[in-house]
Amino acid sequence: MANTRNRISLKDIANRAGVSTSLVSFVLNGKQKQHRIKDEVAQRIKEIAKELNYKPNAAAKSLRNGRSRTIGVVVSDISNPFFAHLARHIEASAERHGYSVHFASSDESAQRTAVLVDNMLNKGVDCIVLVPCEGSDATVKELMDKNIPLVLLDRYIPGINTNYVCLNNRQAAYDATCHLIDEGFRRIGMIAYGVQLKHMTDRIEGYRTAMTDRGLEAEISIEYADHASMQKSCETAIRKVLERNTEALVLATNTIAVECLYIIRKRGIIVPDQLGIVGFDGGNAFEFFYSPLSYIQQPLEMMAQKAVEILVEQLDSSDSFMQHVETEGILVKRSSSIRNSRK
To answer: Would you say residue 64 has pLDDT above 90?
Structure first.
């Protein structure tokens, strides 16, 4: 997390101004007239505070005044339709419990995650919902050490025992792969992110297990997309897929799916006749593609509600217990994965 040791305090301002800390507090909280503080003294204090770049510690203020009734939510990318919909459900659920929400995007950066969480705590949020990224273990552990109510959402970190709500990703990918096999596809590949995040490794494992269980272990083929260079990495992945005469693909996220759809259409590949596809999470691009995409639908509203409920329980009771929640996805079957005739 960001270093807060050098944060300017009321005492620093008081020492510079040659007055008491309480007097500085009165001025900066707009109570100078109530306490009959001279205008020139108040002005001097304000000038020093500005000069020292003083920023009030909202977290300390909320401790004095009780809860802020705000939830800090850090997702990967709020512009991603998946996280946007999830955030909307979190906001609605929080509102029903009398809470407001602060949102931020980590851009899959552990360093940015630490800074965002630190900023939210300084603004006085009562608790945190976090979509963890690679390398964010230290931030999660620090939140737990500080007894900050916390729920990991969409992903969790093996080895760290904290609250989480996520999809049963292994089963979801297993179901998607088995569906393609049942439709007569055999050379089935997968395009996923090359990261060690639990949700992604589980989806890859689900795909592998389905292929193995159905006697297609020799056909297992995984290509990896890079979040930092989506277009280039997906183009490379699709090229390799076509070189192997792959018949169908499981696309491990909606972002990968959208990028791959543009490439598939640009190359003139006919779906599902030349390439069957199943993705994760619905989206507008899935609806408007000439062959509407089959996909794993996550129960986003349920996941959001459960995450907020866990936090509220933690805030309301010292006897709350750790909760690990895995929800089940639904395979939505559309034309992108359904062959007219089976092999």
So the answer is: no
